[in-house]
Structures are given as C-alpha cells and as structure tokens.
Amino acid sequence: MMRRCLLLLSCIPLLSGCWDRREINDVAFVIATALDKEGDKYRSTVQIPLPGQMGGVGSGGGGGGTSGSKTWYLESATGRTIRESNAKQQKAISRRLYFAHRRVVMIGEDLAKDGMEQMVDLFGRAPQNRLTSFPVIAKGRAAELLQVEAPTEMFPAEMVRELISNSSEEPTTLKDMVSEMLTEGIDPALPVVTKRNTDPGAKGDSQSTVGVSGMAVFNDQNKLAGMLNDKEAQAVLFALNRARATEISIFPKKGKHGVALQVQETSIRIDPVTSGKQVKVHIHGKVRALIVENDTKMGMANMDNLQKLQNLLNRTLEKQVIQGVAALQKAGSDAMGIGRSIHADNPKLWQSIHHEWPKLYPKVPVSVSLDSEIEHGGTLVTPLGIQKEEQEK
C-alpha cells in the first residue's frame, strides 16, 4: 500500500492541470490586421471587438453599443519588422493579443509594391496565424479601411470578409497565396478593396464604407505589378471558372434596348499549343446562361432569335476574356497560370524556357472560343407587355 501511495504521489508533478490556462476576459481577439509600409518601417494596425459595446436589440449605434459607441477598437504601431510592431501593440493593450480568429489581412498598396516575402514568413511561422484568412490589397493605406463604417455588419473586417466571399467561387486564402508564390508558372492575384461613400439620395447622409474594386496582380518577384479594373478582373475570374453569378448586358441591335444575362455555369480550359519553343494559348469551353431581363422585342420562342443571342453572347465574352488576358500581359503577371499549364503539358519545354518566361509571357498569342447556351428565360418566353404582333421574328 505504501509503494502504491508513493507511486501515485510521484505522478503528481507530471500532471499538467490548468497551469497554462488563459481566461477569456484576459484575451483580445484580433479579427483583422492592416499592414502598411512607412519609409523603412512597417505599420501594423489590429481591429479588436469590444464585447461590452455589443448591445442587443434596441441599443443604439447601428448594431451595438448602448450609446452609439463603436463596437471595435484599433491599436496601431510601427516597427522595423512586422513582429516588432506587434510587440509594441502588446505593450499598449491590457489583454493578450490572440490572432487565431483573424479573418482578414489587409495589405497596403505601398507594402505590396515593396514585396510580400517578410509578411508571408511571419504568417507561416507563427502557429496562431491561420492560413484560412483572406488576404486583400488596399488601394492606398490599409489602416484607413479599418476605420470606415460598416452599415450592414458589426465590424468593418466582417464586411470585407463577406464581400470577398461573395466576389468569387473560390476566394484566395493565405494558404493559396503562399502556394502560388512558391509555384512556378503562376503569379498571385488578390482582390482590391477601396474606401467609398454610400449614395443614399439627395436628402440622405453619406457614409464611408468599403467595396471590392478589381484585382491586384503580382509578378514573379512577388511584387505588385498592377491593378485590373472590375471588368478585367471579372473576365479573368470567368476564364478560371471562379466568377460568381456573372451578369452581362448585350444589345442585339444598335440602340438602348438590350438583354441582361446571368452566367450560371462555366466549363473553361486553358490549353497551351506548343511548336518547338513557340507557345500559343487557346482558351475554350462552354457557358450556360439565363435571361434575367429582356428589354427588346425579341421573343425567345423563336429559335433564330435565341441563336442570334447566343452568338452575340459568345463574341462579347470572348472579347472580354481577351481584354482581361491583355491586361495581365501588360502588367507582366501570369495570374491565370499559363506557365503552369505549359509545365503540366510539356515539362521538357518548360524546363528550357522557364528562366525567360517573364520576358516571353507578355508576347504569347492568346485565342478564345466559347460555346454559349441560353437554356430559358425564367417564367417568361416572350417579353412581358409586348403584343404578339409587335414581337420581332
């Protein structure tokens, strides 16, 4: 019995218990980080929710705060490294910073132009940093975007996260970005967020908020190469089968009357065509679309009208994709992974050209051919309000 007691007592020092526990009211949950470059230093700004200001139904302040106070707090500091700036922030906050619940990482335009390597090393090295966060590029200073109003959400960070989730079928995460940075033949591309003002009308008060505005593309040095506008960014996502609910207006005849269509499904391939060291790219595939508005007199029960519309949709989409690829080539960014396609299709050729690919890529000829199918026009086949005898045959 004595031996058993001694054995049990000797096990007590090995039991961990709760010696490293951390009470929730001692933790500051970081939900977003904004990173900027200021001279030769880095500025890090964190957004922290304030549970005490998150009132229930009937409280003021647009979703939280019993007296209209903000439901979040910002802390900012500069340092020679990003980690050093985080350490300075910790000295100014009474609670322990906790980054595992971070949802968004905003990267300022100047920092993106300078390069992304140091930022990526920090996020990949610390276990708290989840690689499922959404990285975005801020047009201008990233810190300013964490200070805007979020009329439909409790925090600006949550609004940005929802905007990014709705902008693409497969939003880019930190893990995806790192993978593209380390993979030959493809360059990273991230959504661009900008500060904008709401337009409530002549008698309403305008508010500052955020919106997604195009795509930031990087070169093979992982530096910001340029920014695509909304139309070009949507065309690139469309060619990659990542666009969500793309809507396009086409005009069968010259004038104001047109047809609005929503792309429901795409199946598009990027195929390299090689001959010796000569490379061409052919983008082709099928598109299924739905009529969401018909402002013309064309009745879709007429198969000739439907075929004309499908041909016009093909030409319009093909032109937009060509423009999107041209914008990427002009910026010198292979965000569509054309080099990666060559590597997969012809590894020997890629080994012989991959060192000079940044110079070859902007001159690669690209052709596009699409086959669109418009299945139906909702519950209406003919334009509503147009008499049968007025419909165009």
UniProtKB/TrEMBL annotation:
Domain Spore germination GerAC-like C-terminal stretches: 213-378
One Gene Ontology cellular component: membrane
UniProt-annotated location(s): Membrane
Boundaries of every Spore germination protein N-terminal domain copy: 20-194
Keywords on record: Germination, Lipoprotein, Membrane, Palmitate, Signal
Record-linked PROSITE patterns: PROKAR_LIPOPROTEIN
GO annotation (BP), single: spore germination
Record-stated family: Belongs to the GerABKC lipoprotein family.
Protein name: Ger(X)C family spore germination protein
Species annotation: Ectobacillus ponti
